[in-house]
Amino acid sequence: GARGRVESSGTFATMGVPPGRYFVRVSGAPQGWTFHSAMVNGRDASVFPVELESSDISGVVVSFTDRPTEIAGDITAENAAPETVTVLVFPSDANAWTGYGNSSRQFASARVGKDGKFRIPNLPAGDYLAVAMPDSQAADWQNPKFLQGLTGAATRIRLRDGDKITQNLKVI
Question: In the 3-class helix/strand/coil scheme, how is the chain assigned residue by residue?
Fold first, then answer.
């Protein structure tokens, strides 16, 4: 939970961070831009933790984009009103279902509107599973066993930087 200060030059630093595994999280972005990544030694530290030992880490590159990703679409619900449905999107790699800190950029959910439409912006590029389900069943999304049970009914989506994907889903 350390905070950093960004200088006018674009450099930033944190102070007094004890050794451990950390994610880089960014709050706020310049107007018209969205946080894209925080690269450390070729890995995105906003998705994969970085190990902070006794020495500082330098060369962290925080990037923003004006072309954020988006998954949107319509749902088909035979026995549910659209506004009682949630769409869950989660990584297809089960190894990413744990160890991501308080929140993961690779997990997202959206309530479906009365018009049957949903929209999930700003996921990092990657391979995902998407599923539409009644709100009452979506609460256990942080449980890997629950996610494993969804994989057979989920739709696979490959999301690349800047992609705007339309994916229609049927409520399970």
Answer: CCCEEECCCCCEEECCCCCEEECCCCCCCCCCCEEEEEEECCEECCCCCEEECCCCCCCCEEEEECCCCEEEEEEECCCCCHHHEEEEEEECCHHHHCCCCCCCCCCEEEECCCCCEEEEECCCCEEEEEEEEEHHHHHHCCCHHHHHHHCCCCEEEEECCCCEEECCEEEC
Alpha helices in 37-156 (DSSP H): 144-150
Query: Could you report the per-residue pLDDT of 42-89, keeping only the tens digit for each?
Result: 999 999 888 888 667 788 899 999 999 999 999 998 877 878 899 999
Q: In the structure encoding, which two tokens stand for residue 157, read together?
A: 């989506």
pTM of this prediction? 0.85
Judged by DSSP in three states, 43 sits in strand
28: left (phi over 0), alpha (psi -120 to 50) or beta: left
Structure tokens at 122: 């700003």
Instruction: With beta carbons less than 8 A apart as the criterion, state whether 96 and 106 touch.
Output: yes
Cα 130 from chain centroid (whole Å) = 12
46, 124 contact by CB (below 8 A): yes
